[in-house]
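quick q for whoever's on today - can somebody do inverse folding on this one?? i tried earlier but teh output was garbage lol. tokens:
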């Protein structure tokens, strides 16, 4: 008689299935919708150059800027869903690429500090770590009311430590853990790969998230 799957195995399978679907959607956004909008954007620029009337030229220029902003948002969404560099180049290059778009979109400067040599991580580990960092930075953009974040990667001999720290509003961790599925998901994801996610925050001081993964 076969053993029934454990809760962790079921959770891992669900997450893996979700990631495959997310990857498909991200590819469609980038190569489908994104490319179509870019073609429209270049067409509008061509039309703008051909218009003589100042009012119409100004209107087309506004539409062109709006379309450019939309393209940028879709590119960020595509990277948020599934960064192409994560599989090909690794966690740190994927984070660098994501941070450039994050800062451009939200105006929040992220100071990235890397200590030690990046290790070759398994695909589930890379995806999990990226998702946790992504969730943490997304929360900063939505709730922290700050323009600066410190993000540290420390590759030791036997563990990887990631620290995301902001000096924003802060919150009551106990209360938010009961209400926020995002915070709980961060901890659950890390547990599934044998790691930890420790969240500390103080109202008016800021929030620190420490991510630990044995190597």
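ok took a stab at it. sequence:
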């Amino acid at each position: 008689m076969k053993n029934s799957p454990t809760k962790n195995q079921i959770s891992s399978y669900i997450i893996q299935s979700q990631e495959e679907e997310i990857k498909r959607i991200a590819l469609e956004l980038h190569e489908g919708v994104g490319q179509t909008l870019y073609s429209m954007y270049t067409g509008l620029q061509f039309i703008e150059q051909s218009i003589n009337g100042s009012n119409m030229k100004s209107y087309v220029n506004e539409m062109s800027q709006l379309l450019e902003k939309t393209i940028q948002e879709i590119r960020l969404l595509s990277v948020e869903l599934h960064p192409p560099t994560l599989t090909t180049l690794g966690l740190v290059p994927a984070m660098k690429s994501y941070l450039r778009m994050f800062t451009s979109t939200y105006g929040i400067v992220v100071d990235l500090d890397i200590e030690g040599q990046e290790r070759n991580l398994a695909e589930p580990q890379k995806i999990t770590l990226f998702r946790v960092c992504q969730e943490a930075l997304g929360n900063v953009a939505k709730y922290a009311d700050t323009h600066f974040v410190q993000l540290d990667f420390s590759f030791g001999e036997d563990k990887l430590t990631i620290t995301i720290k902001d000096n924003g509003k802060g919150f009551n961790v106990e209360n938010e853990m009961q209400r926020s599925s995002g915070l709980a998901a961060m901890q659950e994801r890390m547990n599934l790969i044998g790691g930890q996610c420790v969240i500390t925050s103080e109202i008016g001081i800021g929030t620190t998230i420490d991510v630990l993964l044995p190597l």
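fwiw The first helix runs from residue 7 to 50. also DSSP finds seven helices and five strands in the chain. so keep that in mind when u check it
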